[in-house]
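User: Predict structure, ligand 4YB.
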Amino acid sequence: ADVTFSTWPWQHWAKERPSSVALSFDEQQFSWAELAEKVDEYAKGLVEQGLKRDQLVAVVAPNSVSVIWLLLAILRTGARYVGLNPHLSQQALSNQLALLECDFIWYPAKSGAALDRVQGSKQAGQQALPHRLQLLPPQTPRMVPVTWQASRAATLTMTSGSTGHPKAVVHNAQSHLASAAGLLQWMAFDGEDSWLLSLPLFHISGMAIVWRWLYRGAKLVVASSQDLDVALGKVTHASLVPTQLQRVLENNRASSLSLKRVLLGGAVIPVSLTERAKQAGIECWCGYGMTEMASTVTAKLADTSAGVGAVLPHRELMLKDGEVLVKGKASGMGYYRNRTIFPFSEQEWFATKDLASWHDEELFILGRKDNMFISGGENIQPEEIEKVLLSHPAVDQAFVLPMADKEYGQRPVAIVSTSPELDETLNEDLDGYMKQQVMGLCRPVKYLLLPSHLCAGGIKISRKQLAQWLTEQH
Ligand code: 4YB
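Assistant: Predicted complex:
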């Protein structure tokens, strides 16, 4: 049966198993008792600096142990946490801050230049940054006058969809915990296990790791090193996007891993990848999910089919005209703008814009509705072509985008990353390969190398940015 919490999850575990290790980074470890005490101290420090319940704090930082303290301490004060990608451009960061109208901001001492520029740019109509919080214990003793309420808005998580227009999804602890409980009914994660914070906390995939940890009272490992391989050697569980797992396997360090299982998601998961992982002794779980549903919605233990499994407990899913609709206890509270939560209604289905079909009780994602384009009167679903490209042994990542064409209206262009690098022979090699596999108008007319500057930062490459870059190429 699902665990229910009558107090903050970390206080629950501080009572149940006070001396078990809760959090570890570098050589430091904190037990649940120590963690609960530290969170209270930091929460008092935040209250002393003026933070009040229902206020919003933006945390602009890469993952670190400070970010974990902040998240828990902010929740403890009854305020709300929103993580922002520190690698965003100044413009994108300004846009997100304008949408959120936060009461406070936190960023590390050595933060990127973008924030300083946002701070410096007080041109007409632009506001300065919100007041900067510090992560410190209080100077004078005080209380935090808030009690645990699982239905209170707790976190906001940015999602850009494919449009590039950011939206902030509000979740309460209840929906995060329902999401965690449902996944962990299928994918074993014991109190003795440890999950690496392997994805950014400003994305739902990182946030979901924290809630699975809180739900189970297990161990969270925050890696200080940038080296994913090293960090993976110290944990039993990790969440990875397919390209991360690909790199780990290529570096061939997998054999030294203590990893029991990996949850994959966020993008198409090639069967060839999970098969290679299996040979390296890593058990892969395939997930399909989205921010609005607090991460994973369907999942399965990886097998030889390219589907994303069946619907997890606490979620409902149906197809309408081929589109995935979802709802359930794991659903967010609503979108946030103008300092207001615009609620998702409880009965209503959320339309994901993902096209899918069912085969043998398993869901297969076909692609996004809004990625489809028309070439010479034929509907082209880029993801179908991308799948074929990904089956080429040298192709690591593939995107197909439309390029304007006088005769056909639009024609597909492929943008790929390859290893070993096919730089010189790229067009020849891939065209030869694709000729054998794809018919007529679906065959890309050109192959380009994925520019590395578009890979920085987030966990996904934005098709909007790719399209922009494509218009700049000739
Ligand atoms: C997919 C897809 C798939 C999403 N095939 N398209 O905890 C996890 O579930 C997790 C573990 C590892 C890596 C990522 C995750 C996630 O949460 C991913 C959730 C996510 O990507 N949310 S999102 O809001 O940024 O994007 C949602 C969209 O991503 C979906 O609507 C799909 O279009 C796409 N997507 N999983 C194919 N397995």
